[in-house]
């Protein structure tokens, strides 16, 4: 949803993908 590059791209990537 939001930009993962701002916080934890790795964590967000795993959740989003």
Automatic annotation (TrEMBL):
Q: What is this protein called?
A: Uncharacterized protein
């Amino acid at each position: 949803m939001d930009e993962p590059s701002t916080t934890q791209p790795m964590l967000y990537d795993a959740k989003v993908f």
